[in-house]
Every structure is written in structure tokens, then in C-alpha cells.
Amino acid sequence: MVRIVLALGLFLGLWAAAGGYGIGLPLTDEQLASYEALPIVRPSGAGLPEGEGDPATGFEIYAFDCAGCHGPNGEGAPFDRLVADAPFSLDLPPHRFAVGNYWPYATTLWDYINRAMPFASPHNMDPDEVYALVAYLLAENGIIDADTVVNAETLARIRMPARPLYRVDPLTRQLFPWIELP
């Protein structure tokens, strides 16, 4: 009986305290306006903002913002590698995957960097810086030339080496049945 009373008391105490923490309260218009909605970037390049960057500028950004986590040459230390040393293969261990041998779309790389990097202060780069960093990573992986300028138009046209290796859904016989690919 004592256990039931204690359990009921604990439940009622937690229930009463939940309202005190503001759990489930709707956001005010002012709070909602303080959140910046990031654009949705599609594999086709739809949603990419204006801007451009080149590998030389990207190298400077990489050295300052990325090398501490991904190694001075993108070899991965302590976090994931960014520069591939081998072509994509299903036999590669997961820690060997990198931009050049795993990512299917260059636009997805841009979107990921824009949203989540650098790790300590995500979404801290302007579009030109993200384009430059993507250009640097693509050049280091041998996907583009070192003098290629990357922007919304050129990025969407880049064919990533791993793209044809993604498997088709056996039920629908489509690569990604929920979206239309470019």
C-alpha cells in the first residue's frame, strides 16, 4: 500500500511540475521570427542560394575551420575523412568513405556543410564560403579542376563518382522513389 501511495505521489508531483517548465507552450510570433529557416536544397540544385567560390579560397577556409577535426589534408582525424584514397566499393569499411567515393550529389554536400558545419558553430558561413569549401573538397577528391569556380548552376551539373553505385529499390525499381532525380 505504501508503494502505491508513493508512486501516486510521485506521479502527481511530476504532473504538477510539468506545467512549471513551459512544456508544450506554443511559440509567440516574436519567438518564431527569431528562428532562421534554412532553404531546402534538392539534388537538382533547386534551393541553392546565389554565390560562388573556388578551391583556393576554400583551402583557406578549410585550414581555419575544418582541419582541426578532419586533418590537414582531409584524411580524417579525429572525425571522418573528407578526401578519398580509394574508389567507392561495397567492400570499403565505413570509416574509409569520403566525399569523393561516397556522396551521390555535390548539392547535398553543400547543404550539409551549410547546415551543420563547422561543428562548434554550425551555419556560421555565408554562401560564398560554403561554395568555396565545397569547391576545395571536390578539387581535393579529383572531381573538379583546381581552377573551377563553383556556383548554384555549376554545382548542380557535377556528377559525383559514387552516384551510379547507389542501389535501386527492388520493389519500385527506382533509385529514390519518393523524389524525382535530375
Automatic annotation (TrEMBL):
Q: Where is the Cytochrome c domain positioned along the sequence?
A: 53-141
| Keyword list, A-Z | Heme, Iron, Metal-binding
Q: Name one GO molecular function term.
A: heme binding
On the tree of life, the source organism's domain of life is: Bacteria
| Pfam short name (any one) | Cytochrom_C
Its protein name is Cytochrome c
* Lineage per the UniProt record: Bacteria, Thermotogati, Deinococcota, Deinococci, Thermales
